[in-house]
Amino acid sequence: MPLTELMSQIQELPKIDKLRLMQFLATELVKEEETNIFVANQEYPIWSPYDCSEAANVLMNLLVTKQQDQNG
To answer: Which of 49, 48, 45 is nearest to 59 (CA)?
Structure first.
């Protein structure tokens, strides 16, 4: 079946069936993936908001500015 024909049939599906199709396709893609994303005994850096005082200051300044704009 050509892709264009398949796409036109998909457009006619109800929303729940489209969601099920998305879930099915995502699962199939994971199954076909040959490489493992995570390797055992490997360290992976994770970003954390702790010790990010500069970002906190930026957000606080935005809040203060927003409150000043609303008050006056």
So the answer is: 49
- Domain assignment present for residue 57? The answer is yes
Q: Is residue 13 part of a domain?
A: yes
pLDDT (average), residues 12-27 = 94
C-alpha–C-alpha distance, residues 65 and 43, integer Å: 41
H-helix segments, the chain:
3-11, 15-32, 53-71
Torsion of CA 11, 17, 19, 20, to 10 degrees: -130
| Contact predicate 69/62, CB 8 Å | no
Query: Does residue 11 register a pLDDT over 90?
Result: yes
Give the three-state DSSP class for 14: coil
Place of tokens 């200051």: 57
